């Protein structure tokens, strides 16, 4: 481990207690590492794609199997900007329990940033079609007067570790400290889960656009959309914050 990453680990080391006080976890926040890629993918397949509201609502579409998702997810993660990603590890068990996967986008990526070109199944078309619909009317680069923007792609925390503030630390640290370090002038995210929306609102993000799931043409025109799987989630929000104000 480099001196820099050892310092980074110490800097972000936190101790968390569950609400019931039954468990005492020693959570460390560490930079992305290629060695953890398989674990990151497993976490996303087991947690993100089985609990994130949009993915849940179209989970019967062709192309939603683990193998199909893996085909586009692995190259996506490999191609995103590793310097602005952050992992949460249960240090006592050396187990990955959370991850925020992000990407730095520039004004030249304006037309392509929300849709990975190699994701071409019906399931991916619905997920990314919805994401594109959500961001359609907003040019985040001109809105923030920015040329480099952090795009928050995916965040997930293992269910055994929910409600301990882990997502909050992941989102906070990557949106502000890591994004600034990489020269980003703004942060943007398509946020589907109410807990994640709450985190970003608390951090001062503004809502740039809101799209109720039942108003989405992408979803409601699809025979695979099942609104009953959305649970208590009603709308997705495109959220953003400037890093150059104040
Ligand atoms: C969303 C997710 C990352 C939150 O992780 P977490 O570590 O449990 O979140 P935190 O403990 O940091 O909680 C942050 C805030 O959200 C609230 N919150 C957490 N889970 C919640 C839930 N299921 N419903 C409503 N609010 C919730 C917490 O109360 C907390 O607010 P508070 O500090 O004011 O009490 C996690 O539920 C997850 O992995 N979900 C599946 C993937 C997903 O949907 N990712 C986000 C896509 S936009």
TrEMBL record:
<dbReference type="Pfam" id="PF00583">
    <property type="entry name" value="Acetyltransf_1"/>
</dbReference>
<feature type="domain" description="N-acetyltransferase">
    <location>
        <begin position="27"/>
        <end position="220"/>
    </location>
</feature>
<protein>
    <recommendedName>
        <fullName>N-acetyltransferase domain-containing protein</fullName>
    </recommendedName>
</protein>
<dbReference type="InterPro" id="IPR000182">
    <property type="entry name" value="GNAT_dom"/>
</dbReference>
<dbReference type="GO" id="GO:0008080">
    <property type="term" value="F:N-acetyltransferase activity"/>
</dbReference>
<dbReference type="InterPro" id="IPR016181">
    <property type="entry name" value="Acyl_CoA_acyltransferase"/>
</dbReference>
């Amino acid at each position: 481990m480099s001196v820099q990453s050892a310092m980074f680990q110490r800097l972000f080391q936190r101790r968390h207690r569950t609400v019931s006080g039954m468990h005492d976890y020693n959570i460390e926040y560490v930079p992305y590492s290629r060695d953890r890629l398989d674990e990151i993918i497993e976490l996303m397949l087991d947690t993100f794609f089985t609990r994130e509201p949009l993915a849940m609502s179209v989970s019967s579409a062709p192309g939603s199997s683990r193998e199909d998702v893996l085909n586009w997810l692995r190259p996506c993660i490999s191609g995103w900007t590793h310097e602005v990603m952050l992992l949460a590890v249960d240090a006592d068990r050396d187990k990955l329990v959370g991850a925020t996967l992000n990407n730095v986008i520039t004004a030249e990526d304006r037309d392509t940033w929300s849709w990975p070109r190699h994701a071409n199944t019906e399931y991916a078309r619905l997920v990314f079609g919805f994401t594109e619909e959500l961001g359609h009317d907003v040019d985040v680069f001109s809105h923030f007067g920015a040329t480099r923007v952090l795009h928050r792609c995916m965040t997930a925390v293992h269910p055994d570790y929910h409600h301990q503030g882990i997502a909050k630390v992941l989102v906070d640290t990557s949106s502000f400290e890591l994004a600034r370090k990489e020269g980003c002038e703004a942060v943007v995210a398509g946020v589907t889960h109410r807990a994640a929306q709450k985190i970003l609102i608390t951090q001062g993000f503004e809502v740039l656009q809101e799209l109720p799931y039942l108003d989405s043409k992408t979803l409601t025109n699809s025979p695979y959309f099942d609104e009953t799987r959305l649970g208590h989630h009603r709308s997705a929000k495109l959220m953003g914050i400037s890093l150059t104000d104040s």
